[in-house]
User: Fold these one by one.
Assistant:
Number 1:
Amino acid sequence: MKSRLLIIVCVLIFTGLVGTSYASVEITAFDLKISSDNFYESFPNKYPYLIMKPSDSQQIAIKITNNDSNPHTINLFMAKETPRPDRHFVFEPSQIYLESGETASSILTVSSSSEADVGTTILHTLIAQSTSFGAKSFAFYFEVTEQIHPPSPDPLRMSPDGLMFSPTAQFNLSENKIFEMISYDILPPTVPDEYSLQVMDGSKEEPRLTYSKEKYSENMLISEFGDDEEILQIIFEREEFFTYDDYLQFLNPNEQQVRINGKGGISSSVQLQTTDGEEYLASRVVVFLDEVKIRLESNMQEEQLLRISESMIKPNMVSEPMSEEEEPYVDPDHICPPGLVLDWDICIDECRIGQIESNGICIEIDSDSVDAVQSYFVITVASIFGIMIIVIVVIFMSRRKRKWKEI
C-alpha cells in the first residue's frame, strides 16, 4: 500500500515538473508615499503644485515601505525630460536599502536658479525603481513666478464632436474571427460575463478593440461616451525603437512596474471626476511584447484589468508578426505541389532546422524561442528519467520486503 502511495506521489511530482503553469501577475512590492508642506491642493484630475520664486527652494518628503519578503535597493531619480538648467532636483539619499518590512525616507529638494524662466509651469515626475524588480512614480507641477499665488484650474477644453469610430470599423465580426485576423500570437481576453466585443477599429497591425455592456453602432458620436463609460479598450501599438527598459526611465504619473506571465508591463489606477463632479476610476495596463505593446484601458479595478491582461498573454510567446523584410516573397503563380513547402522561392520536401512550416511556407524561428524549447525538452526528459529511477527503486524495495517476510 505504501509503495503504491509513493508511486502516486511520484506521478504527481512528475506532472508538476512537466506541466508547470507559468501564469502569474507580479506587481511592484513596495509603497511610495509623497508629502510636502509646500504643495498647493490639486484640483480634480490635477497633480499637486510647487510654486516658488527664482533662487528659491522647497522640499518633498519621500517614504518607501518594502512589502516584499526579499530586500530591495531603491534608486530615486527624476524621469528623463528636456534638460532645464534653471531647475534642480536633489535626492538625499538617492538610494535606499530596505529589508523586508522596513520603511525608509528621503528628501527631494527642488530649487530654481536666479535665471529661471518666470511664468512657466511644467509637470515633473519622480521615479522610485528597485535594482531587482519594481518601480513607481509620482508627478507634480513646478511653477516659477515672481508673485506667489494659488494656481487656477485650466478652462475646460471641449473636443469637437464627431463619429466615435472610423468608417473602416467592423461591428459584425465574431471575437474568434477578429483574433484570427490579428497578426499577434495572443489569446482572446477573459472578460466579465456582461461585457462583449462590440467593434474592431484601426489596422490589422494596430487594431483597437472595444468591449462593452451596451450595443454599439457605426453612427455613435463622441459626445455619447462619458468619462465613466463602462467599457474596456484593448489597443495594439507597434513599438520598434522605444524598449521596455527605456519606458521605465519615462514613467507616466502614478504608474508602477508589473510583470505578466514573464512579460514586462506598467499599470496605474487613479480616481478622477467628471465635469459634473462625479468620481470614476481610470485604470490602465500596458504589456510589452517585443515590437508591440498591448494597452488595456477601463474603469475597472486595476487588479481586474491585470487579470484580463494575464488571460491574453502566452508564457514565452513570440509576439511580433514578420516584418516586410523578414516575410518570404511569395509569387501568386508560384505554388508548391502537394507535399512540398516553400523556402523563399524554392519548393523543398521539409523546412530546415531553425524553421517552422506555416501555411506552406518555411519561417525562421527566433533563436530565443529555440533555446527555450530545447531547455524545456532537456528538463522534461531529465524529469521523466528521474521519476523512472524512483519508481524502479520503490518496486525493488517492496519486493525485497516481501522476501524478508517470507523468510
Note: Residues 175-312 form a domain with the Protein Transport Mog1p; Chain A fold (CATH 3.40.1000.10).
Number 2:
Amino acid sequence: MRLSAFGVKAFLLAAAAAVSLAGCTQGAKSTVKPPAPTPPKFDPTFVEPEPVSNGVVLKLDPAAGAKVENRLRGEIEVASVPGRVSIPKEATGKSTLSMDYTITVAKKDASSVVLSFDSTPLTLEGKAKAEGIKPGGQKGKVSFDHRSALLEDPDNLFEGLFGAGMIAFPESPIAPGSTWSSQSSRNMPPFGEVKISETFTYRGIKERNGVKVHQIDSSATGTIEDMRVNATYYIREDGLPYEATMTSVATAPIGADAQKRPLWARFTVKVDIGPKP
C-alpha cells in the first residue's frame, strides 16, 4: 500500500468515525417506522429525561422549502501509538477538510422531514491532500422524524458529514440541566462492533450572533480504546442546526503490516459547523 493512500484511508476513516461518534447517527433511531424499513445497523436504548412542568419540547419543524447555508471545517490528526506497532511515520500528521453546503427542507409531512444537502467540493489539505477526493460537489437526502431522529442511516461519509450538528431530541419537556442518554451498538468498519454510551445535557436558550438557539452539550465513551467525544450543539428554534463543535479522540488499529500485525493509530478529530459567512 502506498503511504499516501494509507494516509488518505486513515484520514477518511477518522472523519467517518468522528462524525458518527459525535452524534450524527445520534445514538437513537426513530421510533417512527419508515415506509420501507431496513435492518438497523445499531440498536440503541434511549433513556428519556425526567419530564419538567412547563418545560421546552424540542421539535424538528422547519418550514417546507426552508434553506440553511452552512460551513463545515474539520481537523484530523493521525499519530503513532508509543509502545505498539504503529502506522508508518510518513502516514502521521494533520489534515484539514472544509466544505460549504445548503440544507433544504425537501419534503415535510405529519411523520417525517426529508432534508436534502448540496455541497461545494470537499477540500482536503495536509497529509491527505496528495491523494485527493472525487471532484465536484456532493448531494444527498436524509429522512428524520419530528424528534430529529433518523429514519434511516446515512449511506456514506458525505451524508454523515451533512448531518453533523443534528441530534435526536427527547420526547419529554426539558429545562436547563435536564439530561438524557443512550446506549447503542454500531458496526463501524474497520473497528467492528462498537458499543457507545452518550449523555446529553440541555443548557437552555442562548443567543448566537443575534439568533436564539437551544444549547445542548454531549459526551460519549465507547469500546474503542481511549474513545472520548465531547460536543456542543446550538439548535435553531425550528430544530435545524445552527452551530456545533465536536472533538473526538480514539486509539484503534488501521490495517496490518507484512507480518499481519495490527498497525495502531491515535486519532484526534475536531469538527466545527456554523452559518456560512
Note: The chain has two helices and twelve strands.
Number 3:
Amino acid sequence: MTKSSRVISHPQQLDQLGVNLLPFSNSGNSVKLEIDNIPVHQREDWEKQINERVSECGCKWAGMGFLMGTTAYLFWIALGPVKLASLSLHHLGHGIFAAFAALIMGKVLGRLKGQRLLKITIAEIQQKWPATVQE
C-alpha cells in the first residue's frame, strides 16, 4: 500500500491540517512542502515535524492512562474498603472499567496534545516561511 502525499505550496494551506481525534482513523497521508527558496534539509525537517504531529495517535498517553488507572485500582484494593479475601468478579469488573476509562482519557488527551503541538509547529513554520513565497 502506497502512502499518498498532500502537497502544500502556500503557508495558509497548513491551517487545514489537523490531528484526527477519532481512534483508528489516521489516514496515513504524508505532507510534502513545495518551497523553492529554502535549503532542502530545512524543508525536510519541517516536513518531518508536521508529519509527526499530524500522525499523533496518543498511544503514549493511553499507556500512561492505563497504567495510572490500574495502579489506582490496585491501591484501592490494598487500602480501600474491599479486602483481598472478599474480592469478587464484581470488584474486578470495576477495576477493568477504571483501567480502560483511564486508557481512553489518556488517548483523547494525547491526541489533543498532538493537535496543540501541531498548531504550534504550523505557526512557527508560517513565521519562517520565505516571504517571497507568501505573496
Note: The first strand starts at residue 5 and ends at 8.
Number 4:
Amino acid sequence: MKKIAVIISLILIIFIGYNFSPLTPKGAIRIKMFFSGYPKEAITTKIIFVENIEGKEIYRVLSPPYEVQTGTMLNRWIVEQYVFFYCANYGVG
C-alpha cells in the first residue's frame, strides 16, 4: 500500500512539475494564471500557440478566465524567454 502511495505521489509531482514549469511557455502561462487568482483555469484550460512576433510567442487560451476588474476575458498571452526561463503576461488585443 505504501508503494502505491509513493508511485502516485511521484506521478503527480512529475505531472504538476511539467505543466507548471517556467521552463516551458505553457507552464509559464499556467503559473501566471494560478498566482493571478485563477487556479481552476490554470489546471483545466487548453493553451494553443498562435504566432511568433519579434521573439515573443503569442498564445491563445481556450475557456479563459474572466477578469471582473477590467471586464475582459484573459485569452491572449504573450510569452518571452529569458535565458532558459519563460515569463508570461496577459496581452491586450
Note: The chain has one domain: 2-90.
